[in-house]
Amino acid sequence: MDKHLIIVGAGMQAAEVHYYLGTLGGREVDAFIVDPEYLKEPNFLGCPVLEFDAARQRFSPQTHEAFVAIGMLAIEARRRWCLALVQAGYTLTSFVHPSACVASNVRIGSNTIVKEMAVVSPFARLGDNLILCPQACISHHACIGSHGFMAPAALVAGGADIGERCFIGTGAIVRDRVRIGDGCIIGAGAVIMEDCPAGGVYRAERTRRTREVDE
Predict the structure, then answer these.
(1) What is the third-level CATH fold of 94-199?
(2) Which of 41, 44, 119, 140 is the one with CA 20 to 30 A from 108?
(3) Which residue has the higher pLDDT, 63 or 206?
């Protein structure tokens, strides 16, 4: 029988994970965990919201697994929480949506969620602590570093290498064999055709109003 779960976070990402792992996956979620400064409500989705020390006293690693559900740009906080939970002895679970297509020779790491209709092709390599949103596509032999976030419909072409702690925005395209350095943010709709040094922000031009509609 699967262990019960504790989820780090009490926002939209945590609600999604509660749905995927709890409602859809059949796992029993017993609590949400937040940093003390975010402890504003005692309950979330019918479960208690606790600080980490209180959660450890009630829900031990022997009886519970964990998932860190801090979304989008809070990548460093997600990484920090993963390390803290592993050091405390918890196993970090993962989830692949039934509609996702993941090649049989691809390893799904810890604290990773692969959402609806995402695609991970053969010989791709995935790190740990990844969020692959709906219709994200990781093509053959691409490498995605740990602690990353792939927004909806983001596309990483064959042989591309995405570093750790990277955010790839909605509809962004990374061409084949390109290297994205650690900690980069690739904005929505960006088209990356060459290597990106670490720690950079790369974005597409904003859409602007060009003329009025003829009556």
Answers:
(1) UDP N-Acetylglucosamine Acyltransferase; domain 1 (2.160.10)
(2) 44
(3) 63
